[in-house]
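ok trying this again, last paste got cut off
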Amino acid sequence: MQPLRNLPEKLKSAQVLVRFCFRLLILTGFALFGSIGFGRSLIALLWMSTILCAVMALMRRERFMGVDLNHWDEMAGYAALCALASAAAGR
């Protein structure tokens, strides 16, 4: 399968950090309007984001523990925030 020519091979670390923060703001906004409460909604959305980032990293064949930040690092960030939110909620 040929790689897509329009997609950059590597994103710079700053772009990944901006993407992470922007997605986190969107997740927080959706969790505010969740019918099951903010904490439980945020935990569920962070868990789904963790899985999505892992799938994206596998699809893009990104290197784990590479020099630049990538979807694997973003996945670790979402997993850490999910664990923190779960501990704060007492689950």
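PB: full thing came through this time. The chain has a mean pLDDT of 87.
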